Amino acid sequence: MNARELTDQIAAKLAAEVRRNGDIIPYIAEDGVYKTDMRQKNLSWWTNGFWAGLLWQMYHAVGVAEFKATAEKTEGWLDEAMADFTGLHHDVGFMWMLSAVADYRLTGNEKSRIRAMHAATLLAGRYNPNGRFLRAWNGDKTGWMIVDCLMNLSLLYWASDETGDPRYAEIAQNHADTALRVLLRPDGSCNHIAVLDPVTGELTGAPAGQGYAPGSSWSRGQSWAVYGFALSAKHTGETRYLEAAKRSAHYFIANAATHNWEPLVDFLAPESPELLDMSAGAIAACGLLELEKQVSVYEKKLYHDAAEHLLSAIAKKHLDLAPETDGIVLDSTADYHKDIHTRMIYADYYFVEGLLRLQGKEFFAW
Ligand code: GLY
After folding, report:
1. Are 336 and 285 in contact (CB under 8 A)?
2. Structural domain of residue 329, as residue ranges?
3. I need a labelling partner for 289 at 20 to 30 A (CA). Which of 1, 107, 139, 246 fits?
4. How many domains does the chain have?
């Protein structure tokens, strides 16, 4: 895999995608075409920051002005989702870290800082003080917490750094500690969901989520654990999160390595059908490259090589670099039981972040 050459090809493809899709928020490219505009379908959808994030990463790496302008436009559209409030959820970190915080960090835009503070305050408002967790989703799921949410904690760490108010980071750390206790299993695999009593905080169950079944091992959830715990370790300096990231990583590496570095959607699903989720590989690769920065010199090679294997496996067989089509990474799966083998905007984002990390050219977005 030639990371530099790939980056140039992706820049050319992204420029063509921007020309075709500059006025939409893309999510899934069906048959290589972004047919659905998430602005129309669901402005509050959790993936709606990845387009801006992808554009900011590539703007930072190659400096194309249209990438910046389109990212800024997307960020502005999300204001309506913030004002609406009712559709928002635990994933506001994904939405506003990659749009508003990225913009603020790269350009110093004060309006972006305010948008991000609104998002951080909304996320903090989802905290359950008895159970010490950020509740997932809406409706009657008052005691639900999920492994994906570890990635949203960066928004709270950012808000504390930005304001000097320790409450945001304290909430993030309490959530990470609860995740350590109820989501990470002794063998390094993890539950997607844990249900706690919203009044007492007592653990009452771990139902199936986007993986195969209760007790199985959803690979994207596992990749969120690798990257999410590594980020909590980075932001807090606490070794218990570093150890958790390593345990999650070792489980991910062992399962991906024995399948040509092409992660199954669920590591514990039946042998057939053999469903892949290349987004899990891209996310885990970014987490492993973050871990590489935090471990001793003796351990760095393990994480670096595993990340390279994961990204190379995508580059070899699961990539579409043609400027005429939309979507870069092929074969991602939103949920074991639906949306199988499609092009997902978050797979593109993490593949590009990983590729840039390999070259030391990434923008630190978390
Ligand atoms: N909500 C994050 C995911 O589906 O992976």
Report:
1. no
2. 3-359
3. 107
4. 1
Tell me the mean pLDDT in the region 100-125: 98
Is 161 in the active site? no
The reply to whether 103 falls in a domain is yes
Q: Which residue minimizes the CA distance to atom 3 of ligand 1?
A: 148
pLDDT for residue 217:
98
> Is position 120 within any domain?
yes
Q: Is 91 a catalytic residue?
A: yes
Q: For the segment 214-237, what is each residue's pLDDT rounded down to a tens digit?
A: 999 999 999 999 999 999 999 999
Going by the DSSP 8-state scheme, the letter that residue 99 receives in this structure is I
Torsion angle (degrees, nearest 10) of CA 12, 15, 20, 24: 130
Residue from 103, 148, 266, 326 carrying the catalytic annotation: 148
Written as six digits, the tokens of 284 are 């885990």
In a domain, 281, yes or no: yes
Q: Residues enclosing ligand 1, CB less than 6 A? A: 46, 91, 148, 210, 220
Residue 366 falls inside a structural domain: no
Query: Can you tell me the distance from the alpha carbon of 83 to that of 271, in angstroms, rounded to the nearest whole number?
Result: 46
Distance, CA of 54 to CA of 100 (rounded, Å) = 13
List of E strands, the chain? 28-29, 127-128, 133-134, 144-146, 193-196, 203-205, 343-344
